[in-house]
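step=encode ok
step=design start
structure_in=
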């Protein structure tokens, strides 16, 4: 079959196992810490350790460990930069959500490119900062620290541990 793209190869079962294990532990740990931290508070769907973009990050850091987008600099930097850009965009245009969302995603892409921290789930992190609940908006720039930075670091630590248990994986490929 000829074409411009490459055919995707079947992932070996052993790699699927490590991808599953990493994602299961990473997301479970985020959920557990959310329950522990917020046990005395009313849980809001977006004020916890878990944001939707972490699911996409899990695909990269546990399922595509060789991808440049899965490397620690991209994972951590991409999420934090995008969170800050998202908060800034919302604060700049709080009554024009469509404009704030547009600027948050588009600007986060360019800034991640400039800083060599491109991480595709970062676009969702920026968008969440704009379309999130009033409770999330009250966090302001601390959204970049909690839940974004904390959650990202937790996922990274799990990736470092799980991905290096397999002799066929090496994570990270590079730090900087």
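sequence_out=
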């Amino acid at each position: 079959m000829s074409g411009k793209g490459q055919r995707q190869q079947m992932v070996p079962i052993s790699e699927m196992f490590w991808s599953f294990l990493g994602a299961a532990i990473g997301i479970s740990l985020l959920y557990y810490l959310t329950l522990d931290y917020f046990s005395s508070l009313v849980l809001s769907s977006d004020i916890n350790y878990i944001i939707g973009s972490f699911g996409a990050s899990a695909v990269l850091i546990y399922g595509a460990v060789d991808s440049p987008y899965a490397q620690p600099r991209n994972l951590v930097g991409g999420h934090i930069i995008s969170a800050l850009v998202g908060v800034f965009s919302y604060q700049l245009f709080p009554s024009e959500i469509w404009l704030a969302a547009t600027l948050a995603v588009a600007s986060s892409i360019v800034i991640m490119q400039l800083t060599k921290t491109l991480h595709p789930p970062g676009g969702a992190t920026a968008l969440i900062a704009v379309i999130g609940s009033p409770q999330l908006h009250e966090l302001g720039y601390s959204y970049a620290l909690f839940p974004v930075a904390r959650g990202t670091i937790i996922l990274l630590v799990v990736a470092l541990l799980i991905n290096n248990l397999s002799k066929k994986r090496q994570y990270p490929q590079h730090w900087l």
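step=design ok
step=annotate ok -> The mean pLDDT is 91.
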